[in-house]
Amino acid sequence: MSRGSQLSDSERAEVIKLLAAGKTTLEISKILKRDHRTIKTFVANPEKRPEGHRGPTKKSVTAREKTRLKRAMAKQPLGTSKEIFEAAGVSMKPKSSRNRVLGQLGKVRKSVGKPSLTARHKAMRLDWDRANIRRDFSTVLWTDECRATLDGPDAWASGWILHGTSPPPRMKRQQKGGGVMFWAGIIDDIVVGPFRVENGVKMDSKA
């Protein structure tokens, strides 16, 4: 059986035979155990054949090109295979060949959605703790500021990183933010809210 959305010659002949027998595309897909969309695509245009990659293909890289690819991956972690190859000045098509080469050098990972704390952030948190250590927090709702914002990182996209390295955090949204968010909390089994959060508003004491 063919892979993906392509039919083998024997499957194509079987589809034509079943169509002549009055079978529907759905019935044919169940008989051949193929996706219904694949059968419908073939019936819509039986003469169409899958086209291979146009032009010469490159299936390997030199040691020097590998070094340039490693350097590009280190400079722009979480980049796509196309971005990395362009940055390294290496020409290779198709995408499957690029991914095979990069698979020897690294791996695909998602970014960290929550930015790591800097030394300044840690110092500010300690100062806040010292100033509020005696405060009654029984009526305080705690919120992760990184998650309660429409403009924070979302860790949606993934990309290539070198072996032995960790995925870095994304400081901005890949989809440029947007949307509508509602916020609510519970104190002593009492629901507080919900409130609609305006674009760009962070859930802190001033909100």
Question: Concise description?
Answer:
The protein is 36% helix and 12% strand. The protein is an alpha+beta fold and 207 residues long.
Number of helices: 7
| Strand count | 4
Low-confidence stretches: none
Determine Rg (CA atoms, Å): 27 Å
Major sheet strand order:
1-2
Report the end-to-end length measured between terminal Cα atoms.
59 Å
Largest sheet: 2 strands, antiparallel
Overall shape: it is flat
Q: In which range does the helix fraction lie?
A: 25-40%
Query: N-to-C SSE series?
Result: HHHHHHEHEEE
Structural class: alpha+beta
Average pLDDT works out at 79
Residue fraction in strands = 5-15%
Structure commentary:
The termini are far apart. This protein has 207 residues and is an alpha+beta fold. α2 packs across α3 and α4 crosses α5. Strands 1-2 form a two-stranded antiparallel sheet. The mean pLDDT is 79. The chain contains seven helices and four strands. It has a domain of 36 residues. It is 36% helix and 12% strand.
Topology of this protein?
Elements lengths: L8 H12 L4 H8 L3 H9 L18 H13 L5 H8 L6 H11 E5 L8 H13 L26 E5 L18 E7 L2 E8 L10
Antiparallel strand pairs: 1-2, 3-4
Features:
207 residues; alpha+beta; two-stranded antiparallel sheet; 4 strands; RNaseH_sf; DNA binding; Tc3 transposase DNA binding domain-containing protein; Tc3_transposase_DNA-bd_dom
